[in-house]
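Follow-up to my earlier ticket, as requested here are the two runs.
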Amino acid sequence: MTTTELARPGRTEPVAPLGRAPRPVKTSTVVLTAVAVLVGVGFVLPAIWILIGSFRPNAEILTTMSPLSRHLVIPSEVTLENYVHLLVDSGFARALLNSFIVCIASVAIGLAMSAMAAYALAVYQFPGRNLIFAVIVISFMVPFEAIAIPLAQQFTDWGLGNTMIGLILPGVANGLAIFNLRQYFLGIPQSYREAAMLDGASEPRILFSLYARLSGPALTNSALLIFLGQWTAFLWPLLIVSDSDLQLAPVALAGTFGEHAADYGQNFAGTIVLTLVPAISMFVLQRFFGRLSIGSGEK
């Protein structure tokens, strides 16, 4: 029998099948769910408004806010004028290319340096190892804004102002990436390294052919940390670069706001462009975050 009806003495109505009694929904659960939905909508609406605003004429962006109407979310005219003016008529396209160059170079150099530093801290036993690791941990806890101005002055004294190298170098040394990779490397059994050494492999080959291949999620995470740090950088390029041909996209986007006027349409279009790049990167690389560490229990 798939169902069983039980009857109490003196009663003929059936009782719900065993193990299938519906659970009553708590009032607190309903309230919390409603609050979560409202909070989510509150966060999403400004993003939707910016997305819609990037496709409407600049003159209509603020006029649709008072009085409130359906035109706030439904534009009366859909146009690509804001994107065309931003990418063709302004210097944003060049700044966007500069941002890509700086980010790609920072990821390539920074990931290699972070992996080597993490490998040394995870594998070798030497005096002061824990102290060095503690300094690295403290380094990414200090806000960059606290050291940006004296660091920019030092870079200027070194002749690195208005150069791509000056834009790339601060993003290369990423303490959080080193911490992330070091913790992952500790989960790789030492027996793998010992077996590779018995086969005659050198330390660089062990790092890049063994540890790097087993650390896909950690390398992807660290690469994203470096990339996002450089992609969203605003204060550093503002301090170190005065040449408009070398300016990065976030600073160039701020140029859509003038002293007496602001082009909200271009600003919204630039915001969407700058947001799409990390969003697409996260979407493409998300599959790497679900992989488990090999030998994560061994230290």
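Run two:
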Amino acid sequence: MKPTILTQKNVCAFLGLIMALTILWSAKAEAKVDSINEVIPMELYESKETVQEEILPQLEIDFSKVKTEPTITFINKYGEVIAEFYGEKSVLESKFKDFFEKGEFITASGKHEFYLL
């Protein structure tokens, strides 16, 4: 029998060494990234906030008149929205008689009604 280096024991030991080195290398690289992300001088951080406050004007928008949910929604047979109407149902029925005559009531959720065209 010839002595050889490639025994099962030696191959497993070599693979274990490679895995250990890979784990150490990746941990070192991850620690380096974390240290770069954490180090921000406070002067730069505070000046960045003041610059953003000076550049961006404060806007006030009144959303009280915007309705979040339509009163009536018309959809086609594929479920695509054809029309959305906002306002009182009686007013909408008088203005859009054609839609209501052609459409078929499907369901309602609170004040929101769905019709199929």
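The only thing I checked on run two: Strands lie at 72-75, 81-85, 104-109, 112-116. Let me know what else you need.
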